[in-house]
Amino acid sequence: MTHLARRMFELLEPICMVTFAADESNEEQAALGHRTYWDGYFAGRAAPLGQVPAQVVHAAFYNFADGEAARHIPSAWETIPPEASLAARERGSAASLRRILGDELAGSPGLVRAADLTTKAATSAPTAGRVMYAGMRTVAVPGDPVARLWHSATMLREHRGDGHIAALVGAGIGGTESHVLSALDMDIHPAESFGRIHHLPKERLAEVMAGLRKRGLVDAEGRFTDAGRETKYRIEALTDALAVPPYEALSPAELDELITELEPITARLVATGSQ
């Protein structure tokens, strides 16, 4: 089942990525009055949590640097209600999927079936300990198949993300440290050049790298040690294991059917970079 969880991540992630990579979601957020991409990102993604303080969003998102959430929350909600940002995120993401997939694939019986099975999985897992997933479970599932597929894939993404955070916490890996490990896993060197962290103060990045060296996870050149690579492997393996519960709601036949129906959808999205 852990192999299945990894395969489902590979199939569903390109669906979720339209929210961040394509234009429509950002355009919908800008039309509401959000000034920047990151205003819309924080306002839309955090919206299922309600109007919580920045500290709560920072804790739930986990891998943003100190102070980043506070630059957008709660100011992004002062004139735009969270539910409006959430609806704009859904509208834009569904519009991106329709454009990229085209009328034939977006309107196909296979997509409808994929949306139904993804929704069945996404609405079946326990919410205990899954803050972002629990928040998404409070949001009404759209009736439109394309929007429903995006919504349910995003629920499963947040479910997996909550499990990934649990794995990181258990391994004693902080948010910025997790980006360093991901960069090294992708053969990005120096890891400090990774797009998710390169903008951080050099002093902060030096502190993070020094801490990883002290723990024996990176060497003097800032590359993985054997212990560092093993730590990354264990985190990913546990993330996969923790992502299994939603798919236990589907029969083996339904899982096979879901994979079959998702493959052409994902292939189209991968070909365009979900843009």
Structure notes:
With 275 residues, the chain is mainly α. The chain is built from 13 helices and no strands. The protein has helices spanning 2-16, 18-21, 24-32, 37-46, 54-61, 82-106, 109-122, 131-137, 145-171, 175-185, 202-214, 226-242, 252-272. Helix 3 runs antiparallel to helix 6 (82-106), helix 6 packs across helix 13 (252-272) and helix 7 (109-122) runs parallel beside helix 9. The chain is globular and about 55 Å long. The two termini are 31 Å apart.
Terminal CA distance reads 31 Å
Share in β-strands: under 5%
Radius of gyration, rounded?
Answer: 19 Å
> Structural class of the helices, strands and pairings?
mainly alpha
**Order of SSEs, N→C?**
HHHHHHHHHHHHH
Classify the oligomer: single chain
Helical coverage, percent range: 55-70%
Contiguous runs where pLDDT drops below 50 for at least 5 residues: none
Assign an overall shape.
globular
Number of extended strands: 0
How many helices? The count is 13
What's the short version?
With 275 residues, the protein is an all-alpha fold. It is built from 13 helices and no strands.
